[in-house]
Write a structure and sequence with these properties.
Blueprint (H helix, E strand, L loop, with lengths): L4 E6 L4 H4 L16 H18 L4 E5 L3 H14 L3 E6 L11 H4 L2 H11 L12 H19 L7 E6 L1 H11 L4 H5 L9 E6 L5 E5 L10
Parallel strand pairs: 1-4, 2-3, 2-4
Antiparallel strand pairs: 1-5, 5-6
Helix pairs in contact: 2-3, 6-7
Length: about 220
Amino acid sequence: MKPKRIIIVRHGQSEANVDRSLYAHIPDHEVVLTKDGEAEAVAAGSEISKMLGQETVRAYVSPFKRTRQTFAGIRTRIEKNLIDVWEDPRIREHEFGHWNMRHNRAEVMQERAEYGRFYYRLPGGESAADVYERLSTFLESMFRAFEKPDFPENCLIVSHGAAIRVLMMRFFRLSVEEFLDLQNPVNCQLIVLELNDEGKYQVVQGRLIQKTDIS
């Protein structure tokens, strides 16, 4: 049974969102939320709770610390709705590799821009095209789960900015150019997809902002 909603949430404000220099000595998966980020997660949980009412939900969560902390905050508000939680590494953030610790960031970013941001594989990390491949397998697994008659009424995905952009690209079959024109969702932004009368999902809340929308 297809869920009536797919709710996608970016993690709350992390310490690296405030100070990017942390990446020079802390692995990406170890980055934690700030106090503001923890509060954002609880607020997102309250918003999701109002949306769900008495309906059930399954959560898929990235295993990075900041996404698990975000889900913990959300969970305080939706415990009564929650059927189960699946931690899935395939929805982790775009792997930017170890070059933050060993390379000149400006030089790597310049090389990436010249080569092509979607296809350039960061040293020790991934390209966005690599992320597309693993998120494709995640969506295939999720859609197979939707076919089960006892799937909950809602699906919640707690992930990361770049990963969510790629997820939306794959879900809605956007072109590379359309993907590159998208901005990351803000911390704890909800992107809500609802099932329409034709059995297809459409964005009803929190569409990703295009660069051309910014004045």
